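dude i think i finally got it to work??
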Amino acid sequence: MAKEIKQLVVGITREGDIIVKSARGRMYSVKKSADLKFSCEDLFQDVEKDLFATIDAEAQTWECTSIGLEQ
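look at this
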């Protein structure tokens, strides 16, 4: 399995988890890492650009380590 995966960010939960959409179309929430600062305001800064979450897939509970534009 890949160490890190990138998923499209589609939202944020009330609890602050990041909602992502997989390549197969499934949507699920992922916990933010403790040092990641990301809020609802960040999500809607530029709605024309897609944001992608980098997810640590080796962690026991997957967690989002960074969010940015796909490169």
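Strands lie at 4-12, 18-21, 27-32, 51-56, 63-69.
im so relieved honestly
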